[in-house]
């Protein structure tokens, strides 16, 4: 009889608990990763307990009712995973602790008083009660990266992204509910200032105690302390039956509202996201890397001549594969050039800012300053930077932003890469050629001279007879001096049909018939092609298209690639 009464009594208790949607966990209960590993909510949709993390186990709350065991909360997320031999004890004196086989205790929750019971609620909130059944601790108050329906991100608190989908430890992005009423996204390890922000709700100044809330119908909004909605991030009104909604700041730094159907074939779908540009989150690419959009996806690239620190790990950033310039010891075997990274923006941490007219001047200013490792140029302002550069991203359509990076080329490499044929062109020769040619826009004259030579016009005999220049020596282009050219072209006043010659030179170049230019003379074709290409660039009618002096020099010595020049006539027609 007594046992029957007890049974009825017990059934009554269970029924009441069931009606309240609760499954109570009593003191003295325990979990282990390998046997009973979790306590489920009444609905069975959420569970609190062990889940697999890396090569061990972590404790948290996760979706239990669906195949994807998505984790929504983790205890001590930055502690190393536990071994299979640990036990989670809800001790008889009301502490919730994880005990290792060696007897080391780790607290899972830190309530202000001893707990009397615990519960995994159907809302996804894991709570501890005192003996008066008052909640003394809840997982909802210390969110990690996710907000569930009914959960709030209260003032001063933040969500942190995870390292990866399978590693719940703290990643590199955060979402903060600020005391100025603004909800803002930043990279981790930055102060809360606008220059580091990459998303904001724009509700600053709307109150000092604002919360981010998620309602059952999928409405995500900002609420002030007297209950006024300041802003709806999503309008809500989504179906509430058999669907669950949650908001998460994802590994990639974007926060999204997800829905999931509770039926077996249900899946996750993104209802809303804070940004559609995956390059928005600052720092996605680590130091010295920059983000580019590749279709809908973000991709990280390294600065020129830099390589990933850890292959495949974007946040590890990039490092240079050469020795940095030193102001103290000049390493003679190293030479530095500037490489352009167009259409990119970076954090401005410049040590010097110059108002300079052109990109080329900016490039040159950094090149000659041994302290300058990179420069950013925009709208006539040149900013000299030290490495590392961070928060880099490519901004397409904004051609005003350009970065220049100082990279080393060892002088021995130049000779290896660019064998210059039978004759070695000394830097001085190239310099003289480069300067004289670009200074006077005279590459045309070289072409003319070649043409004259080819056609055996009088100029050839005159110069040759004078004995100043021995044109019978092959590959002699480089040894033309300014005065030689002057003589050959009769003080540049020779009535040459320039335009026709230009076109002829270009068509020879286009048709790869360089030999025509020099007739049957035995010349270094590559060097000739180089000179011709530079020449064609220098004679363009549009001055802004002509390369700078320095560029000409670099082009001639083969340090930089020479793009295919446009036809000299094509620009005339567009002007
Ligand atoms: C923790 O649980 C294990 C297994 O139930 C038990 O052996 C151990 O004594 C418990 N420790 C405490 C402090 O309650
Ligand atoms: C909440 O917003 C309403 C409407 O803007 C405003 O009247 C009220 O003072 C605000 N409450 C607080 C505490 O700022
Ligand atoms: C903020 O407002 C909530 C009510 O929405 C209140 O419970 C809480 O105490 C307030 N916090 C602060 C720091 O004023
Ligand atoms: C937010 O959405 C709710 C429900 O749709 C609506 O009642 C409220 O007026 C909206 N508030 C704002 C500020 O848009
Ligand atoms: C997920 O569910 C939505 C709506 O239920 C559906 O449109 C979508 O195709 C599903 N996606 C996948 C990958 O099954
Ligand atoms: C650095 O890497 C780039 C590209 O991979 C290469 O062209 C360059 O020669 C390398 N520089 C050094 C000093 O190794
Ligand atoms: C990437 O590298 C950083 C160190 O630079 C490390 O902290 C992080 O855990 C790595 N991420 C992954 C997914 O391995």
Automatic annotation (TrEMBL):
Residues 24-141, 144-270 form the Bulb-type lectin domain. GO terms for biological process: recognition of pollen. Residues 1-18 form the signal peptide. Keywords: Disulfide bond, Glycoprotein, Membrane, Signal, Transmembrane, Transmembrane helix. The keyword Chaperone does not apply. Residues 327-408 form the Apple domain. SMART domains: B_lectin. The chain crosses the membrane at residues 430-453. This is Bulb-type lectin domain-containing protein. The lineage of its organism: Eukaryota, Viridiplantae, Streptophyta, Embryophyta, Tracheophyta.
